[in-house]
Design brief:
Layout: H1 25-36, E1 41-42, E2 45-46, H2 50-59, H3 66-79, H4 92-103, H5 108-115, H6 119-122, H7 127-134, H8 136-149, H9 158-169, H10 173-188, H11 195-216, H12 219-233, H13 235-249, H14 254-268, E3 274-279, H15 282-292, E4 301-307, H16 310-323, E5 325-326, E6 332-333, E7 346-351, E8 357-364, H17 365-373, H18 402-413, H19 417-429, E9 433-440, E10 450-460, H20 465-473, E11 480-485, E12 488-490, E13 501-506, H21 518-521, H22 525-538, E14 580-582, E15 588-591, E16 603-607, E17 612-617, H23 621-628, E18 633-634, E19 636-638, E20 648-657, H24 662-672, E21 676-682, E22 689-698, H25 704-712, E23 717-722, H26 723-730
Parallel strand pairs: 4-8, 9-13, 15-17
Antiparallel strand pairs: 1-2, 3-4, 5-7, 6-7, 7-8, 9-10, 11-12, 11-13, 14-19, 16-17, 16-18, 20-22, 20-23, 21-22
Helix pairs in contact: 1-4, 2-4, 3-5, 4-5, 4-10, 5-8, 7-8, 8-9, 8-10, 9-19, 10-11, 10-12, 11-12, 12-13, 13-15, 19-22, 20-22
Length: 734
């Protein structure tokens, strides 16, 4: 059966009480006793459902319970005669899962689906029967959970596990919520399993489901799952931490005095607030102990201040920072900039009467419900607001965290399961986040910005400008050419810090594109996957001129093959939009970024993915490498009789003796010849010689020879070469 049926005698269960929010464990025992009494109704509800209904009504006073009762009766009759490994009636498991969700404030549809979540897999009940009796919404949720139960969590299946989970859940986070509650109850009752099976289930819970709980914002489930996994995988550390907590249990709590003083301060200020001492769960205590080496009584908990309105949060913060000594480095405002999992709160720390540091969380009651229950507390995101049913297939979820949308996109566009799994593990492993305020520079030279000024974007710690570009723009970031960080020009490799102001500089056309070096600077899976897709589609060589690599020339992202196999956008361009023509009907043509061919160079082409042809100079080293691998060349020719009468992009390298003002003199000559500098790089001097690399846009390719002659006439310059030739001669330099 899908649920892990075992004895409740978990070896770590004795220490779970402190530091974790209990989800009505006495209610679970009551459910077990009621299940033995059978389904006979009393006051319109079965005995076993009374406690669930009472808890549910606390969050949803107007909830209709008739359908919930019908779901219980169907689940009880379907599972009748089935027992868990502990000997309990099997119906106690779906009841316990439903109670967990009810405690978190789940709406009635989710509770109905949780009661029925094992029926389609473990009984003769069919999905069509569920839909017929309870509607398409319940059927959708039960079907999603059933598919999740069939996912193989074994080590050999890891690369496909998340992909199948995401396909199974579709767009509905409630499926994941039911799965998390199901795993929590199974983890609570894992005691009679063999130790190796306990460890396997605990590892999957740690690697897969706990990160999902974090991203869904369901902190109540996450905290208890962490403690249960901690007890199984690290029993010695668990015992040590538990002993420390018990040691302090008999001592006066220093946070209690600070909390009482806070109540007095806030009452005198006329702020209606509830101040609570919130114990840490055991894993949190363990992490604090590792970070601070030694624990104090104040480290075992935090203070929680609950108020009615958002403005009251800031009023509380002002009073606390006025009447207590604040620890400035501990302040974080997650109300103005919520975390990726919908979490909102003010974090601060103040010094108490005895000198202890009291970490303090300030939030409204609604923020607290979302912090504890995450997306579960948001109700049914698909409930029609105008009384009409949503069209078939449209399940846009306005409350779905952005990361889930990204995961769904990744699994659609990443065919390699190992790549998908690696990227996903990297994303789930990110446990620290920074906030960057992004306002893009206009690409047309106007004063307007692209998008909302100062939009906050969340990134993992260590992210660079490359990551911010792809987070902000998706695959449009291929055209990003630079950035300003806190008002200063910065490279795309610049690592961002919390609170940085970022302005992304976008190319005015699609000729720019990512270089392989971007992969070295990208930290987020979204950026790495997008860059890798572009590079694999372009099939451009990973080498470039010495010094900073230039982006490949040619259309991007139009030159990248579409994920669904459609011809790239460049293939649908007008005939006059490219310089060269390939002897391959219907093929898109782009100029290689490694050698930047221009008319009247002798050129050859090679077919790449997506039906495009990349044009190289005949002397380009890449041509020899491709020929050596058996790649067949494609004939290409320059378009039209007036081959030089086209604008083009070219990379030139000036070899010169190092002297002051050389860069200014060279750029002045380039401007006088009517060429525009796209990018420039200067290598450090070597034996009094220096190399300048320029990527230039020429209005007329016929002007290239005169431009090169003018650059050679600059004092100190002894040669100006095209990029391909420089790579051949570079090896001869001392």
């Amino acid at each position: 059966m899908s649920a892990e049926a075992t004895n409740p005698g978990n070896p770590g269960a004795a220490g779970r009480g402190r530091g974790r929010r209990r989800l009505e464990l006495r209610g679970l025992r009551r459910i077990g006793r009621a299940a033995l009494l059978g389904p006979a109704p009393r006051d319109g509800l079965p005995h076993a459902l009374e406690h669930v209904a009472k808890v549910h009504r606390r969050h949803h006073p107007d909830a209709a319970l008739d359908t919930l009762a019908q779901a219980y009766l169907l689940a009880e009759s379907s599972h009748r005669g089935q027992l868990r490994k502990s000997g309990e009636p099997y119906i106690t498991h779906p009841l316990a899962v439903t109670l967990i969700l009810a405690e978190l404030g789940a709406e009635t549809t989710t509770l109905i689906a949780s009661l029925l979540h094992d029926t389609v897999e473990d009984t003769d009940l069919t999905l069509d029967q569920v839909r017929e009796r309870f509607g398409a919404e319940v059927g959708y949720l039960v079907d999603g959970v059933t598919k999740l139960e069939k996912v193989d969590y074994g080590a050999a299946a890891e690369p496909e596990t998340f992909r199948k989970m995401l396909v199974a859940t579709g767009n509905d986070v409630r499926v994941m919520s039911i799965k998390l509650a199901d795993r929590l109850h199974n983890m609570r009752t894992l005691g009679v399993m063999r130790p190796e099976k306990q460890a396997r289930i605990a590892k999957v819970t740690r690697d897969v489901l706990i990160p999902l709980a974090e991203r869904l914002g369901v902190q109540a489930l996450k905290a208890e799952l962490e403690d249960l996994v901690f007890a199984i995988l690290h029993p010695e550390e668990y015992a040590t931490t538990q002993a420390l907590v018990l040691e302090y249990a008999g001592r006066p709590d220093p946070l209690a005095d600070t909390a009482e003083r806070m109540r007095t301060v806030l009452a005198e200020a006329g702020i209606d607030a509830e101040v609570l001492v919130r114990p840490r769960h055991l894993v949190s205590v363990h992490r604090v102990r590792l970070a601070r080496r030694e624990l104090t009584g104040a480290d075992l908990g935090r203070l929680l201040v609950l108020v009615a309105e958002d403005a009251d949060c800031y009023a509380v913060l002002g009073e606390l920072h006025t009447c207590f000594t604040p620890v400035v480095s501990e302040f974080k405002d997650f109300i103005a900039t919520p975390k990726f999992n919908l979490y909102q709160s003010l974090h601060t720390a103040v010094t108490g009467p005895s000198g202890e540091i009291a970490e303090t969380l300030i939030r409204t009651h609604q923020m607290h419900r979302v912090a504890e229950a995450g997306v579960i507390a948001l109700g049914n995101p698909y409930a029609p607001t105008d009384g009409s049913d949503a069209p078939e297939g449209e399940r846009a979820d306005p409350t779905r965290p952005g990361w889930l949308s990204r995961l769904l996109e990744w699994q659609r566009t990443t065919p390699d399961p190992d790549t998908f799994w690696t990227s996903l593990r990297d994303d789930l492993a990110q446990d620290r986040e920074i906030t960057v305020f992004c306002a893009d520079a206009p690409s047309d030279g106007s004063d307007a910005t692209d998008g909302a000024a100062g939009e906050a974007i969340g990134l993992p710690a260590g992210a660079s400008c490359v990551d911010a570009a792809y987070e902000r723009h998706g695959e449009r970031a291929h055209c990003c050419i630079g950035a300003r960080v806190n008002g200063r020009l910065a490279t795309l490799a610049t690592v961002l810090h919390d609170g940085d102001s970022l302005q992304l500089l976008m190319a005015p056309d699609s000729a720019a594109g990512p270089s392989p070096e971007w992969l070295d600077h990208a930290r987020t899976p979204a950026a790495r996957l997008a860059i890798a897709r572009w590079l694999s589609g372009a099939q451009e060589p990973a080498v470039g001129p010495q010094g900073p690599a230039e982006p490949p020339s040619g259309p991007s992202p139009a030159g990248r093959p579409a994920p669904d196999g459609e011809p790239p956008a460049a293939a649908r361009a007008t005939p006059g939009s490219v310089l060269a023509v390939a002897d391959l009907p219907g093929a898109a043509v782009r100029l290689a970024g490694c050698c930047t061919p221009v008319p009247p160079d002798t050129v050859t082409g090679f077919a790449v993915r997506g039906g495009a042809v990349t044009v190289h100079r005949a002397l380009c080293p890449v041509v020899a490498r491709m020929a050596a691998t058996g790649r067949q060349p494609v004939g290409v020719r320059w378009r039209g009789a007036g081959q030089g009468a086209h604008g083009c992009r070219v990379t030139l390298m000036a070899e010169a003796f190092s002297r002051p003002h050389l860069l200014a003199d060279l750029t002045e000559v380039i401007a006088a010849q009517g060429a525009a500098v796209v990018s420039a790089a200067v290598e450090p001097p070597h034996e009094q010689r220096v190399r300048h690399t320029y990527t230039l846009h020429l209005p007329n390719a016929a002007g290239l020879p005169s431009l090169m002659r003018a650059m050679r006439q600059v004092p100190g310059v002894f040669d100006v070469l095209r990029a391909g030739r420089v790579r051949q001669t570079a090896a001869m330099r001392p």
